[in-house]
Amino acid sequence: MMTNPGNRITQGQFSFLPDLTDAQITVQIKWALQHGWAVSVEYTDDPHPRNTYWEMFGMPMFDLKDPAGILMEINNCRKTFPRHYIRVMAFNSTRGGESPAMSFIVNRPEKEPGFTLIREERNGRSMGYTVRSYATERPEGERY
Amino acid sequence: MSQSPESAADAVPMVFPDDTPVDLDAEFRASNIQEVLDKLDRELIGLKPVKTRIRETAALLLVDRLRRKLNLSSGAPTLHMSFTGNPGTGKTTVALRMAEILHRLGYVREGHLVSVTRDDLVGQYIGHTAPKTREVIKKAMGGVLFIDEAYYLYKPENERDYGAESIEILLQVMENNRDDLVVILAGYKNRMDQFFHSNPGMRSRIAHHIDFPDYGADELLAIAKLMLAAQNYCFSPEGEKAFAEYIRLRMKLEHFANARSIRNALDRARLRQANRLFARSGNKLTKLDLITLEAEDIRASRVFQEGKLDRDGDEMVGKDGHAANIRPSPVCRQAGGEGKT
Fold it and tell me: Which sign does the torsion angle of CA B226, B189, B108, B162 carry?
């Protein structure tokens, strides 16, 4: 049964929606900036859901007032890694918060092969399960 | 199904008949621009040519906005500017106001001013400059980037200087992100001319060259009174006379930095006033004593006694005549905040 046609990975915000347009991304970033969150751009080609730390594309951007600068970085990143996953993250640095407040994907590969379910037979009749992306069968940088 | 009005307007721009009435006055009132211009008139003494130029620019932008409403597109106007003038003639203050005006007219989205110098743009080793410059530009987006003493970016005597790289990135951004930020370059007249001469690309991308004249003695006195009023001080009648005389003497001495010298002189006068009040302790003081600067506070200056500069304050003016380290470097200042004259 295909519950997720096209195997689009669903991580972070808005991932069940169609891809955001640049105008929509701008509005989301504006929201983050209004809260004083530091926005950063990150990329990866390992779509596993437990892959928490993606590569940073440049430093997190502090003290910005306007989303145009971040959109410029996003487009730079898209140009450099056109077939990678790219996400925009907003970090809330207030004491007690100190964690990502927003995270959404702004770029994904054209074809996402999805995941395979691996079953492991263990002692007795117990089973172990794990998932593995078809894409990660190839080395980093050649996956999509 | 009929199309919705917006999508119809998107598809074919509506053409208005030539006799469509336009309400310039209503647009003018709606932009609240008069308020900013009045504030400019009130808080900035003198600077006639600058004010005229700002008024013209504001008018152009307003008319441009009306034209856009009637679908008469003429491309986004180039708003990059260069402010030239001697130290202390109010370039930074006007830049702050400019940011506010552009914000009111909707040409910049946020209306903040990011004030930088060479140090904030140029890196110390290979590969450091580009990210540094870009970071500053990103901070300024949606507002105004004010580059003070911009000619230091270009050092012709050292061909390996990283400043050129910074200029290149700036040029690129000034061209491609014209609707994201406005760049204002500031500096002394002749050095800026030299800078533009050796960077023709920069010259051609800057539409407005505004020259700031030096202040006259009466204008400086008016500025002094304005500064004191902002700090809840005032001159006694003799104090005012003494200060007028001080200005006259000070203007003849070297390193005269217009309003900045006046501010420093006032700071020193406040110091002497506090001292004088202490020396008289025992006597009853009133509120009036706390706010009044007397003639003796001003006449104690070395300018009167020896015809020389006071030891503190004015020494911040470097030996080749430009102010060193007086401005706080890159700070985001909200338009409409405290302007320093």
Answer: negative
CA distance A75 to B314: 48
Residue ranges of E strands in chain B: 81-85, 112-116, 144-148, 182-187, 208-212, 234-235, 292-293, 331-334
Q: Tell me the chain B residues in contact with residue A66 when contact means C-beta distances shorter than 8 Å.
A: 109-110, 141-143, 180
Taking the C-alpha atoms of residue B129 and residue B133, their distance in angstroms, rounded to an integer, is: 6
pLDDT of B206-237, one tens digit each?
A: 888 889 988 888 889 988 988 899 899 989 99
User: From CA A41, how far away is CA A61, in angstroms rounded?
Assistant: 9
CB spacing of A72 vs B177 below 8 angstroms: yes
Strands of the sheet containing B208-212, edge to edge, are B208-212, B81-85, B182-187, B144-148, B112-116, B331-334
CA angle B173/B174/B178 to nearest 5° reads 100
Cβ(B177)–Cβ(B76) below 8 Å: no
- A3-29 tens-digit pLDDT: 677 778 888 999 889 999 999 999 999
Report CA torsion sign: B155, B159, B165, B167.
Answer: positive
For residue A72, list chain B residues with Cβ-Cβ distance below 8 A.
Answer: 138, 141, 177
